[in-house]
Amino acid sequence: MSDTTTTRTYEDATARLEDIIKRLDSGGAGLRETLDLCAEGRDLVEFCATELDAVGQGLEELRLDELVARLEQRPAA
């Protein structure tokens, strides 16, 4: 089982991405390991993007809720 499939949080995924980048930057990875690390990194980036989209949507919903609450508090004209 790869690290990607066991990653449960955004923080875990970004930490693993940092490890992958360090390994690739070191120049010590062979061709096969480099390909595997790149594939894992791509999966982690997709996971992180999905997480960020979900958080962004949650923030947008909160802003809409705040706007509705403010509009409801305004006196009727």
Strand content: under 5%
Percentage of residues in helical conformation:
over 70%
Shape: rod-shaped
Q: Outline the biggest β-sheet.
A: none
Write down the overall mean pLDDT: 89
The secondary-structure class comes to mainly alpha
Q: What is the rounded distance between the termini?
A: 62 Å
Question: In the residues, how many domains can be counted?
Answer: 1
DSSP, total strands: 0
Q: Count of helical segments?
A: 3
Provide the succession of SSEs: HHH
Instruction: Give the C-alpha Rg.
Output: 20 Å
Spans of at least 5 consecutive residues whose pLDDT stays below 50 are none
Could you characterize the architecture of this molecule?
This protein has one domain (7-73). 5% of the residues are buried. It is mainly alpha-helical. It is rod-shaped. The longest helix is centred in the last third of the chain and has 43 residues, at 31-73. It has three helices and no strands. Helix content is 83%, strand content 0%.
